[in-house]
Amino acid sequence: MPNAERRPFFLPKQFIACALLALSLSGCGTMKEMFSSWSFGSGNEDEIEPADVLAAKGMEAYRVGNYSDALKSFQGVIDRHPFSPQALLAELKAADCQYYSGKYAEAKELYKAFEERHPTNEAIPYVLFQLGMCDLSRSDRIDRDPTGARDAVQAFSRLLRVHPDSPYTKEAKARMLEAKEFIASHEYFVAVFYVRTKKYEQASHRLKYLLATHPDAAVAAKAKELLAKLEAGQPPKWGLEKWLPDWQLPDWGWGKKDEVFEQTGKEAESSAQ
After folding, report:
1. Is residue 218 part of a domain?
2. Which of 109, 159, 188 is nearest to 268 (CA)?
3. Lowest mean pLDDT among 12-26, 43-57, 162-176, 246-260
4. Which domain holds residue 83?
5. What's the mean pLDDT in 145-152?
6. Are 61 and 70 in contact (CB under 8 A)?
7. Which of 18-22, 78-82, 133-137 has the lowest mean pLDDT?
8. Is residue 41 part of a domain?
9. Phi/psi of residue 120, each to 5°?
10. Number of domains in the chain
11. Would residue 55 count as lying in a domain?
12. How far apart are CA 273 and CA 262, in angstroms?
């Protein structure tokens, strides 16, 4: 799928409020942080920055799209202050940094780790949505493996099943439909390839499977027409390009993704009030 600027979704206000409260904590550090800040040896080692300072630096870099520096700060919180109030925020934002840097496999692992460690946290609906987006973002061309789109359908389905009233429900449904259209177009593309190589039986099998599993797909009409020709023993010989799938995304697709991200984020914030 074409690349486009990605704008972060808004997290629920309760989660943000807790995170900001954690960042505002001051005074004496914990005994663990006291010992971690002592230097042993030559005395020339860099002083370890407190968790709240690292988290604040991370959020500042994150807000301006400097995901590389933000990730370093969040990772510093995770590595040096794993039991601090800021650690939970750092775990989630580290995953976001990887996602918005286009490193979807790395982001997926971090989102999964967050879910495993904090299964009841109020940010879990957002995490489940982002898991689906990591998978969907791997689906860039219909002539390639559609595993990412299939995984995205499963991820969005789980979100809708477990959290049907979350602020991400509307967008999850749209993205799941997008993933299904991608899968259907892939199946059709493979069928056309079989026709081009005169493997008509395999082509018919693919088309029947497509129509059985995705009867409402945008490419279904073309699939029916091509299948009818194959069953009539009249496979197209010339101008086969016209039979290639014209994969057009709906209005809520990548062409308007920035608007969708912004609007869904506003709805999430409003719903959490």
Report:
1. no
2. 159
3. 246-260
4. 9-27+47-101
5. 94
6. yes
7. 18-22
8. no
9. -105, 5
10. 1
11. yes
12. 17
